[in-house]
Amino acid sequence: MKKSYYFSTKDLLFIAGFSAIGGLASTYLNMVGDFFQSLLGFAGTTQWAAGIHILWILLAVGIVNKPGTAVLTGILKGVVELLSGNTHGVLVLIVDVVAGLIVELVFYLPVISKYIKNLLAGALAAMSNVFVFQIFASVPADSLAFWSLLAVAGVALLSGVIFGGILSQLVLKNLAKSGVIAPEPEKGRAKWFKIGSVLLAILICTVSAYVYVQISKGEGTVSISGNVAAEQSFDVKNTVIEKITVESNLQGKAGTYTGYPLKQILETAIPGKGADLILVTATDGYSYFITMDEVNTNPDLILVVDGEGSDASYSVVGAENSKAWIRGVAEMSVIQSMPIPIYYGEQQVAEFHSQDWQFEMDSVHFALEEGSKKLQGVAVNKVLTTVDTAISFSIMKFSSADSEFDFDLASIQKDDSIRIFVNITGYEMKYLVGTIQGEVFLENIERIDLQ
Fold it and tell me: What is the model's pTM?
């Protein structure tokens, strides 16, 4: 007799497919969300797309129609996001599993129609990410005030109703009409699978939360290295620098913060001549840079301390770029940037300076020889706007010491996924040209030629 499994091969294919599509879509939706945030400039702007993150879980549930589907889809979707370079790291797995768990619990409710369950599940699951991020990822003293939290959660809830609940129902209805899907009824052993899926989701959330807290945990000190006269370790217990209180704005939300001026902290290490960038790296591996010009001119740029002793955690706040508000800082490296010269024939017509594009950059995950890294990059077609429009060319050639790679101008102009990425290895700034999908065309770029 052929053995029967709870999830059929067809079920698993649907779950895997929606998890993969949803995971990749969510990673790139984060970039789109950042754009709307910077464009409109108020807290909660990124939550317009919260329901799209939930859509894929609800589609899987609607087609497979078995308890445990939402949790399994949430787990797999979170893993795909994590591996595809989502900048939130392990936290994104917690967000997706919590969303899957909420969908499961809503669909367990008796009496309510399936249509209402879909709307409610979409709304609550989409809204849950706001609270997960507030619990785990907010910079010290940066948690949203009650009314702000309700406003942001309200945007997410509305998005969940529209993009999660209503859109998923429309898609499922049309698929059923066309005969593409015919959901199977729940099986008799579903009750035990309900209990098991809920317990599994809770276990994964707990383990993921523990892992996230551990990798984000403070190290007690922040090391200052690179192009400095004397490497230092900033320790709040031994510093003579006095704390200050500043009012600063993060993505449209004003806040009051108390900490130590970054300028004074870096001065203790005596940055070398020509040093113009500070690479700030967190305990979870995330990094972003701040220009030395901003360090010297932005009085709101401070290092906030949370906790005491060896468990003290440090966060950079007050930076002009929201991506440089970094939680759990472990190291600050002082470096000297190296621009890429851009030539037309033998004449240099422009230069690429990474610091000029920090507000245009997005983070992408790459598998390089030195290991897996997340690099910041800007679209090549944006860089070309710095070149004199009177110059006529059709080919753009990137060159390293021993290789080169050509693009035709037309392909670059219509494809903003082709980008120049900053790769800081040790204290040396290097560049590569690649795509936001993680494809590498050429590393260690030293020159760009327009032909």
Answer: 0.63
